[in-house]
């Protein structure tokens, strides 16, 4: 069982929920974590159990980064929006940096998320 973080920027939330739904049976065998709004959307859209952290702009990305630094997260699925400026861009960058630093299995789009899930 892997500990998987689920995050999506606003314009990517529908896509992430659709991806989780398409992979519902596989993901049900894992421990799911999410930033506040994303986690809520996944629960609502799939019925899966997700532990929700704070919303991204209020520190949720930072919480996931801390989990990675402390060895408490194995996989990060983070559908990012490259077309919208974000108030918490520094937190997003920090999360990207920590996932890279700690060699975390890390997907930033659906194609990579499919490959990561197949590798679990
Ligand atoms: O902003 C986010 C990631 O940077 C996601 O946060 P929410 O899931 O709370 O919208």
Structural class by sheet pairing and helices: alpha/beta
Enumerate the spans where pLDDT stays under 50 for 5 or more consecutive residues.
Answer: none
State the total count of DSSP E strands: 5
Rounded to the nearest angstrom, the distance between the terminal CA atoms is 9 Å
Kindly state the percentage of residues in helix.
40-55%
Q: Hey, roughly how much beta strand do the residues contain?
A: 15-25%
Named at the architecture level, the CATH assignment is 3-Layer(aba) Sandwich
Mind telling me the C-alpha Rg?
Answer: 13 Å
Taken in chain order, the helices and strands follow as EHHEHEHEHEH
Mean pLDDT: 97
User: Mind describing the biggest β-sheet?
Assistant: 5 strands, parallel
Bound molecules: 1,3-dihydroxyacetonephosphate
CATH T-level topology:
Rossmann fold
CATH homologous superfamily classification:
Methylglyoxal synthase-like domain
Keywords: Lyase
GO biological process, one term: methylglyoxal biosynthetic process
Active site: 61
Catalytic activity: dihydroxyacetone phosphate = methylglyoxal + phosphate
